[in-house]
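Archive entry: two folds, one per protein. Generate the first.
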Amino acid sequence: MTTAPASTALAPTTMPPTTMTDRLLDGLAFSIVERGYRETTVADIVRHAKTSKRAFYEQFASKEQCLIELLRNNNTDLIAHINTAVDPESDWREQIGQAVDAYIGHISARPAITLCWIREAPALGAVARPLHRQVMRDLTEILTALTGSSGFRRAGLQPIEPAIALILLGGLRELTALFVEDGRDMRGIAGPATAAAVALLSPH
């Protein structure tokens, strides 16, 4: 069972859910924090959502589909958080720091969901493959856009190549998983992540 340490495993949202789908997604999120995804049942989800199994199956065909939607929403929130945090006019090194800080802020608020994306979603096999590819594509695109900003252009830097971005993101995902699993302070990711990005993006 993959769970985040209880002291840091916060629920992914703080705003009251507005639709039945939102309630069910929050129900799954709370159960992941409480029991881990593998041990979570539809009964757990509807208990947290304060609804019925019938209502669940009106929205989702399975627990797996519910998880995929939860992780898709989580990715959308992450992208928005980074976009809001980064000032494209800042020095390029500052932009890297802003992006890393935004990433850490997001995952620190929902470590159990983050760990589920990294460790559990791949185990779903083909059903989760489109989600994984979409997430990595979205993150690659935001890195490409960030490194194509005016702050990077002023330094004479070219936008990061997609293959290099994937290498950077893959390492960051694994480091994130290790920090969550070990219950370490997520701020410890900042130094290595920033150093790796600067090294890859610096003029050679």
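Generate the second and append.
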Amino acid sequence: MVQPVLLIEDDRKIARVVKVYLEGAGFRVEHVERGGDAIESALKEMPLLAVLDLMLPDTTGEEVIQELKEIGDFPVIILTSKASEEERIAGFALGADDYVVKPFSPRELLYRVKAVLKRAQGADRTDAVPMSFDNGLLTIDGHRYEVRKKGTLVKLTPSEFRILFTLASASQKIFTRDELVEKALGYQFEGYERSIDAHIKNIRHKIEDDPRKPSFILTVYGVGYKFIGKRDA
């Protein structure tokens, strides 16, 4: 059976609209209204992707996303009325792969679901040659969708992997935030360039020995970021 899209939304009217659009596109949808039920559902059957409202009756969406990320590597799209730039950046910092603000277009949400899944499934990296840096200290395998540090598997979200893969594939090239949004995340919407900072912070905590003194991803102040690891022959 095809894995479901887990829809966590307590507004039944919104949930009904989202469900109609997703099912119309061929997705199987599992809808729950409470955070606790979402965790139970994900443990019972690993979802393909989760669409998560942040304002739930029994707990906060922020707590739910952290628990979901412990269960599996599936993508999470936040769907919420929390619209400020700070709130969006906080959502990405928690590990969200996309952020949609209410009121929203169901067609746009469907597009974002498809785009996030395409990134997560690595459709454009199936022939990628594995990359190794600094005498094997860090390896990035686009085919297996794996990153290892000193041989140990590093758990990245799909968006984090895509950003790291983009930077490492063009070592020493400086990318602006806008370029990383467009090239790594595949969409271009106002405000999303700031989300790159949250993703980079998360990546550094996972691959750097000291995130304050990075040896792989360097900040180019006033411009963006570049990958400085030395690629092995």
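Annotation attached to the second fold: The radius of gyration is 18 Å. The CA atoms of residues 102 and 182 lie 23 Å apart.
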